Each structure stands twice: as C-alpha cells, then as structure tokens.
C-alpha cells in the first residue's frame, strides 16, 4: 500500500507554485493535524491489516511545521509499515533545522527531499525562494548528520537564467552535495500564479534539456523518468508506484488517491477539510481512462507499458514508432527512447481512441 500525506503550509508562497498551500494559515496547523489524525484513524479502522510499503509527506512544506505535530500520525501508521518501507518527506533548506531533521528521522522517515531549485542566488531570488545556495549545502550536511542517506534535491531548469553555463554551474554544485537522487523540473507558468503568461521568464530548449540530462549522467545519475535521476540505484519507490498505476491513499486537504476504478479527492478548502476530513469527491475511472494513463505514464519513465493493453489501431501506431526507432519493443512491452517526446508519442499512439473512435 502507498500513502501520500499533504501538508498545506509554507513559510512563503513561490510565484510559480500552483500546489495547494498557504503562507498565512499557520494558526490552523494544530486543527489541521487533528483532522488528519481523524482521517488516518478512520482509514486504518476500515483497513486493520494494511501494509504500508511507501509513505510520502508532501505539500506545501512539511518542514514548515513543528516535527512534534507528526508524532500522533506516525504512532497510528508505524505498526503498518513493512520492514523495508520507504518513508519520504519533502523539506525546504531554510526550515529543515537540525532538530527537525533529527526528529523526523527518529519517527522513521528515511528519505528526505529538499526543494533546492537552484544554486544560483540570483535565480533563487527570481523564483521567490526563501533560502540561499549556502543554506542548501548546510541542509544536506545537517540531513546526513541526522542519519539520512537517501536524499533528493529538486532543481528547476528552463528559466530565463538557464544556459549551458548556468546548468553546468548547477550540476557542479549538486555534485559537491554528494546526494543519490535528483529531480529536475522544467519551469512551468501555471494558471493562477504570478508567473502565469510571463513567457519571458522561460527559456525552453530541447537542446538545453538534453545538455542537462547529459550532465546528470556524467555525474553518475541515471535517468529513470523524464524529471528523475538516481545514483546508487536509489530510485524513489513511491513515485515508481504512481507510474505503474498502482493504487494509493491520499490523506489531507488537496490530497488525491485511487482505489480500483475510482479517484478520491479531498476538499481543496482548508477549513472544509478541518470541519470534515472524511469527505471525498469520487470520480469513476473507466477502463479507457486507466489505459490512457498507463500509456502516458509508461512513456515518461523506464517502466514502459504492455502491448496487450492496446487495441489494433494503437498497436499498429506503436509498431510504426518501433520501426522509426522512436520506441523499443521487448518482452511484450513498449519502451520510450526519448522521454522529451513522451507526450507526443502517447498522443500519436492513442489518437483514434482519444477521439471516441
């Protein structure tokens, strides 16, 4: 079983961020965690034999709230963790203090993911980040001292600051951190954010993306998804479960989960969630929905997808792409050879089924 917990509090709101988070509602934090505990307890009462193989605490910024708030949540969940459960938490370099990191490690968190975003202080200021490059290095040191070995750093590229010189600077700095995982995301200009429509803020370039991927490979990071790179084989098990299309449970406001042919969504209003954390919006997922998701996600990562899920027209399209050396076919599955073309390839394969043939 896979679980996601959403913590919707941030010390500041980044201008590119469209996730459900607030920098002005910390007065609700204790009430929120009481509601979260109620939701977790209710789920476990209905699933007393649950075995949790991955847990991911995201946000928002989980390190923006006191580590003590997680105590009762972990007291409920800990008996259900499998022996080798991957327990991840996101954190920001400015708010993940040594004490917070030690406390989370003692609770059982064994993977930490820092929202570094850049080692360029000017770029950090442009992105609205509340930390400096120096704080990233210190946060990584503190995490290692607290007992973390499995550490991820998030970086943002394709901003107006990014050319080959800056990307080389970023990757050289990352290499000095000696962490086993990198997540690199192209800057997106999301609706309902201050960055929306500001095209001059982006520098989109396939050549630069390939350059970044090559730098990552040179630093020992093996790409296993369009935005994720692992060294020492330390891939994120939680994300791999998403990409395989496995069911997962979402706890907290804004959280989403899946169960069989159903998508379950929590309220996107913080007060509504606190008032009734058990309410869920339910969306039925058709077999076609699940198939299309499997194709799109499989093409974005090394997992690929099974040929048997395709109808005759889709199979013909996929086989054409194999002949054109855009896909690889092996042992009954199709694999993408260029993650940057993932969405275009998926659209080509599924073009007729998406239009209700």
TrEMBL record:
It is found in: Cytoplasm. The keyword rRNA processing does not apply. One of its GO terms (cellular component) is cytoplasm. GO terms for molecular function: 4 iron, 4 sulfur cluster binding; coproporphyrinogen oxidase activity; metal ion binding. The keyword Ribosomal protein does not apply. Its main location: cytoplasm. Keywords: 4Fe-4S, Chaperone, Cytoplasm, Heme, Iron, Iron-sulfur, Metal-binding, Oxidoreductase, S-adenosyl-L-methionine. One of its GO terms (biological process) is porphyrin-containing compound biosynthetic process. Residues 1-222 form the Radical SAM core domain. Gene3D superfamilies: tm_1862 like domain. Belongs to the anaerobic coproporphyrinogen-III oxidase family. HemW subfamily. Probably acts as a heme chaperone, transferring heme to an unknown acceptor. Binds one molecule of heme per monomer, possibly covalently. Binds 1 [4Fe-4S] cluster. The cluster is coordinated with 3 cysteines and an exchangeable S-adenosyl-L-methionine. This is Heme chaperone HemW. It comes from Campylobacter gracilis RM3268.
